[in-house]
């Protein structure tokens, strides 16, 4: 398929496909496009975000069936073939012959690449080794001094996953501040995120880049752009005194504050309307799990607010109105809010 046509057809299912590299688009056209069209016929939308328990179960089923089909004796061999150099050629041949990409994607309306990464996370035995010991932390420091940020090499030496060693090193490499954020730290964070966004926007249109420059009025903070994944370990390095998870949490807090644009959506009459609208929209989704909710659509229904704002309001609702909410499923919480809380709020309004 012609690259431009492939990109155009994929855009229906993946709006941000224009920012994806040509080589990735070619792979998606081969592995995903027909699948996406079949799901569309069934009225099923392509999903992103956190995987549900149902999807995780389907991935496990697909992997187990592929192992039974090919005779490969473990998921680790199938998904981490480089760890078994003596079996590498045979495994690659079997994966090609038995259409590995299609088989592990069956029944899951997501890009193949995301399903593959999720499978690797589920089946990597190195992901489930608990806390790092003091000795392991010292080992990690030594390996990083020897090999730099070659996390693949370090993960093999430590029998931990790539992500695990990278994130653990980011936590221990320097003195970290756990107290309230100072004004100087917050400015460093804002500057670091802006630098990252400026680099990302150089490949996009000039108007986006010009809005980025208007830092004095914070117009560069745009919900659609800044809810894309950000390189938090890089941002952590620029901030210097906080590790990546703290930076991410603080940035979400800044987004929530700035993107509400001073709207008083959660006070008095407007607050009641917001709660009522949120409950109704959540009920209409018929979602079984929070990961199945399109939080961006909900944020548009309530006002021009970020996803984190809407999620925080839902959290307040369930904590305030749903007894024993921790013991209930997501759908049970929504049903309770709709049946019990909604009539009270509407009467109050």
From TrEMBL:
Q: Name one GO molecular function term.
A: chromatin binding
- What is one process in the GO biological process aspect for this record? termination of RNA polymerase I transcription
- GO CC terms on record? nucleolus
- What CDD domains does the database record attribute to this sequence? SANT
- Residue ranges of the Myb-like domain? 124-172, 173-255
**Pfam families reported for this sequence:** Myb_DNA-bind_6
**InterPro entries, from UniProt?**
Homeodomain-like_sf, SANT/Myb, TTF1-like
UniProt-listed SMART domains: SANT
PANTHER family, per this entry? Answer: TRANSCRIPTION TERMINATION FACTOR 1
Spell out the protein name for this chain: TTF1 factor
Q: Which organism is it from?
A: Calcarius ornatus
The gene is Ttf1
């Amino acid at each position: 398929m012609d690259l431009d046509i492939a990109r155009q057809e994929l855009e229906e299912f993946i709006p941000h496909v224009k920012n994806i590299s040509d080589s990735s688009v070619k792979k998606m056209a081969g592995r995903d496009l027909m699948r996406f069209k079949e799901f569309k016929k069934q009225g099923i939308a392509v999903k992103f975000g956190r995987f549900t328990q149902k999807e995780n179960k389907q991935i496990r089923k697909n992997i187990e069936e592929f192992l039974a089909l090919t005779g490969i004796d473990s998921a680790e061999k199938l998904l981490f073939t480089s760890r078994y150099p003596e079996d590498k050629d045979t495994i690659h041949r079997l994966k090609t012959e038995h259409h590995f990409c299609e088989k592990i994607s069956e029944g899951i309306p997501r890009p193949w690449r995301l399903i593959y990464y999720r499978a690797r996370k589920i089946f990597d035995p190195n992901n489930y080794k608990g806390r790092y010991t003091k000795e392991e932390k010292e080992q990690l420091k030594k390996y990083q001094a020897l090999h730099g940020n070659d996390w693949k090499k370090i993960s093999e030496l430590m029998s931990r996953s790539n992500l695990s060693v990278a994130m653990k090193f980011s936590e221990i490499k320097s003195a970290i501040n756990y107290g309230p954020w100072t004004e100087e730290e917050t400015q460093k964070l804002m500057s670091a995120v802006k630098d990252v966004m400026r680099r990302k926007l150089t490949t996009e249109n000039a108007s986006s880049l010009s809005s980025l420059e208007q830092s004095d009025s914070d117009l560069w903070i745009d919900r659609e752009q800044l809810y894309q994944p950000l390189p938090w370990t890089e941002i952590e390095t620029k901030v210097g005194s906080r590790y990546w998870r703290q930076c991410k949490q603080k940035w979400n807090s800044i987004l929530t504050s700035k993107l509400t644009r001073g709207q008083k959506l959660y006070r008095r009459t407007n607050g009641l309307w917001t709660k009522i609208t949120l409950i109704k929209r959540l009920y209409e989704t018929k979602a079984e799990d929070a990961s199945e909710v399109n939080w961006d659509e909900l944020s548009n229904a309530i006002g021009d607010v970020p996803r984190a704002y809407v999620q925080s309001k839902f959290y307040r609702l369930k904590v305030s109105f749903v007894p024993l909410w921790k013991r209930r499923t997501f759908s049970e919480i929504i049903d309770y809010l709709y049946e019990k809380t909604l009539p009270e709020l509407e009467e109050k309004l």
